[in-house]
Amino acid sequence: EEINLLKLERAECLARGAALKWASGVFCRPEHLERLGQYRKRESQRTASIHSRLKSVVQSYLEGVDWGLGQLREARAELREVSHDLHKADLESRKNSEEVTTLETLREISVSHRQLLAAVSNLPRLYKVRSMVLETERLVESRRLLEAHARLMELERWQDEVLQQLQGPRGLPGTRLTSEDEELVRNYFSGVGRLVDALAKELWAVVGSGLSLACQNPTLFVSAVRIVEREEALDQMFLEERRSTSGQNTPMPPGRPRCWRDRFFKVMEEAVSARFRSVSYLHTRGPGLASHLSALQHCIMGDLSTVRHFLEQCVPSHYRLTRAYLRFCHQFLQNHLGLVSGWELEGGEIFAVLNWVLHIYNSSEMMGEPALVVELDIDDMGPLISQEGLEQLQNKYVQKVRKSVSEWMHKALEVELTDWQRDQEPDIDHEGCYHTSLPTIIAQMLEENARVALMISESLRDQTIQMGLYEMENLLSRFRDAIIAFGKEHRRDSAINSNKFYLHYLLACINNCIILKTSTESLQQQLGSFHSNRYSRISLGPLAALDRAVRKACRLVMDHLLFELQPHLQELLSRTWLDQGEVTQNMCGVLERHCEFYNRVRQPCRQRLKEECQWLTVVEYVRTLMQKRVVCKNSDERNQLAQRMTQDTQQLRDHLQSMETDGTTDEVNPTALITALADIISLKDPNMLILMISELVSKYPDISEEHVSVLMDVRGDVPKDVRKSVLDFLEQSAPPLPQGYRPIFTEILVPSSRIQFCLPTAKCT
């Protein structure tokens, strides 16, 4: 109470303080006191309203408390009555306890009497159990399955009835069968369990051999199916009965549910696996794999025909036996091909597996048959080999083929190298061109591999072509090295025992590269435009290697030409050459003989060799001129030298034209260079040299000061001021090389001049 009083006083103080604060704010000026009456009236009204609301709340609270007290009084009265009734019931229960003990004794006597009555009523059946078991066993052994199953069902019914009679009515207290009594009944009917096992064994043996029985005598198979359906119906009946009496915890009969329908399909699946595993299984690995897959195909289709036309008629329609058999076959093949894929297979074996999985299995010869398509759902069961497995097999196949291709290319190259040492010219084709067996072997091998791979898929063909191009690039690299070694060996042994067919086989090598280029381009076209970007780098590799090999072979051909021209070049631009014209004639004979050999080369290399032959002749002619073997002393010698050079030019041009190599104009024809140099040498006025040199520079912008200086030395009459003017002009002009221009003077080195010493050379002391 003191606390409440303190709280009340504190609240009053706070209220007074708040009122004073409000009043000081409202009546801050004297004129505001005029409205004091209004404020007093308004506050009085507010106070009256608050008092009325407080009274209403207190009144409603008091009414609720009064109603609650009335309810508590009524509940107390009812509790007293209930307590009185419970006391009476307790007294009555104590009076009946002695009578319940008497009823328990009567119940035990009743249960014993009922069990004895059941035993007496079942004595005739119990005496027959052993004889029926023996008779049923004989029926099972003789495969009279329906009769045996009927006897078995009767024995099981007797067993269930005995157990039910011994247990008594369901829901009656004290009627639960003891474990000793139940064990006694189980032991007495133990032969029934053995009969079930024996019948099941015979039943599944019949189901497992259903394919063979269907063609001979399907009666046994039909009997087995009828028994399976009977057992399935009994399982369903017992399950329904147990569900309907689930609150009473009714036990299932011994060995139920048997689920023989599920077991039927399981046995069929095991029979399929065992049957297919026996099909040429011992010869599966190695060369017999393709025969094994073919035997599987014939066995599966034969069995499917039997299932569709015979076994399907022996089972209920809801079995969908054809669909189930297809599923069993598919699952077996998935497992079997997964095992086969893990073996170390050769290329031919991998091809057989891929072809069988991707083409034969889904073709109209197997699962693509219209009658089977509606039964088989490949998407639901999955492919025979997963996409990852197929990719692994394809990669294995490409690796095996690559190994084989590499070995064959190595052998073909060894044969090629052996052919180069033969003492006879190479073979000549229908176009009159040299060739060997190398390009034919390589091209046929790569084309055949691509064709075989295409029988599987385009992707495998592309991988095979890619591999073939890579191996061809390696071969061409070794081929070029072999050509280089062939040339070195020829140069080393040329003085002792020269190979007289050296040039012939070089030309055959060029033709081989041209044939291989055609084969390479054909393989590239097979890749298609869709894959062109992907394989562009790989496709360019062999072409670049071919170009390098061709260039090297052509270089060796030109080296051989130079080797045969070298004796004649030694006599060129000498005093003997000025007096006699046999040197140039001999050179033309060598060129003519070589160009006849070049006619054994395919285009465009034939024309290329002839052009290179012409180019080499001109370069070596000018190089000989740069050696200053002849230095003119007067105008007669200059005219004689220029006239002889002009005759050589015309003679060379006539021979080259006869060999169909001179199809160009003088502006780009290398033989025109000799004529231009002859004009410079024959010029009478040395002061006009700068004009002639400027015209020469315009045609041959790669000519250097050293080349022009040698020309002026050969003339022998160029004054120092003219020489200086010409060299200054060359130094200032230096025009850039036009696009497409082939430098000629760049290949001609000017021999360094010997330094003249004023003192005699002598050994130092």
TrEMBL record:
GO terms for cellular component: exocyst. GO terms for biological process: exocyst localization; exocytosis. Keywords: Exocytosis. InterPro entries: EXOC3/Sec6 (IPR010326), EXOC3/Sec6_C (IPR042532). One of its GO terms (molecular function) is SNARE binding. Belongs to the SEC6 family. This is Exocyst complex component 3-like protein.
